[in-house]
Amino acid sequence: MKSILFVDKYNNLLSQIVEAYARKFFSDKYQSYSGGIEERDIDPVLVKILKEDGINISEHYSKLAYMFGDISFDYVLILTEEAKNELVLVPESKKVIQEKFSEEVVIAQDEAQRIEYYRELREQLKNWVRKRLA
User: Fold this and answer.
1) How many domains does the chain have?
2) Which residues of 26-35 are buried (b: 16+ CB within 10 A; e: fewer)?
3) What distance in Å separates the CA atoms of residue 2 and residue 24, rounded to the nearest whole number?
4) What CA–CA distances, in Å, run from 18 to 26, 103, 112, 132?
5) pTM for the complete prediction?
């Protein structure tokens, strides 16, 4: 089984979603992890949106990518340009892959706006995981 680490800036949105879908769809192929450059709380609304699709991340928390220094990964996928530019210590891996997702999140004024945004992002990233990791 191959190991894969998904890295973004805060490990509270993109990398959490991608890790969750990698585990859901490809747990027989990959041991999936996620980490960030900095830690931030995971929005409870995101937890709710993923739960709609049968994924429970209520026990997940933001982790720093360097915390995985004891693991030699097959792949490290850096999901954003910002993470690439700020990642000082890349965990050991056979291959580092750069993706170009945006972490610019429109700060929604109310929960309904965040729900809509997270649903769209969930579907986009779910489809990306299915194609990229297949």
Assistant:
1) 1
2) beeebbbbbb
3) 15
4) 11, 13, 23, 11
5) 0.93
Mean pLDDT, 10 residues at a time, over the chain (134 residues)? 96 96 98 96 95 97 93 95 88 91 70 90 96 95
Q: With contact defined as beta carbons under 8 Å apart, do 15 and 35 qualify?
A: yes
Do the beta carbons of residue 66 and residue 89 sit within 8 Å? yes
Q: How high is the pLDDT of residue 106? A: 57
* CATH at residue 90: 3.40.50.2300
46-74 core/surface letters (b: 16 or more CB in 10 A; e: else): bbebbeeeebebeebebbebeebeeeebe
* CA–CA dist 57, 16 (Å, integer): 8
Task: Residue 24: give the domain boundaries.
Answer: 2-133
